[in-house]
Amino acid sequence: MIVLRHEIGEVLRDVRQRQGRTLREVSHSARVSLGYLSEVERGQKEASSELLASICAALDVPMSQMLREVSDRLAEAEGMQVPDTVPNELSEEFRREYGTSAVSAEDLPPHGRNRSVAGK
Predict the structure, then answer these.
(1) What is the largest CA-CA distance in the chain?
(2) Which residues form the HTH cro/C1-type domain (predicted)?
C-alpha cells in the first residue's frame, strides 16, 4: 500500500541530504523539533500543510515542486504512465534544481509500492 506521508518524507529527506544539510540545521531553520522532523522524513508523522510549508521554506524548495515530485513518484509506484508534458519536465527540472533522483516503482521500498500492480 502506498502511504502519502512516506513519499513526502522520502522527497524531503532526499532534498535535505543532497543539499548536504543535517536534520539539526533544517529543524532549526524550519522551527520544528529535530525529533519531529526525523519522524516526518521517515513517514511516521503526518505533517500539516503549515509544517510542510515551513520545512520547504527551510530547504528553499517551493512546496508545489516538492508535491509535484511526490505526485510523480506515486504515479510511478501505482504503475501509471507519467505524461511526457509538464510532470516529467517538472520532475527533471526538480532533480536538476534540488538534486533528487527519480525512482521507479521497483526502486521503492515495500511500503512505497502498490503490490496490486506487480503484474504490470
Answers:
(1) 44
(2) 12-66
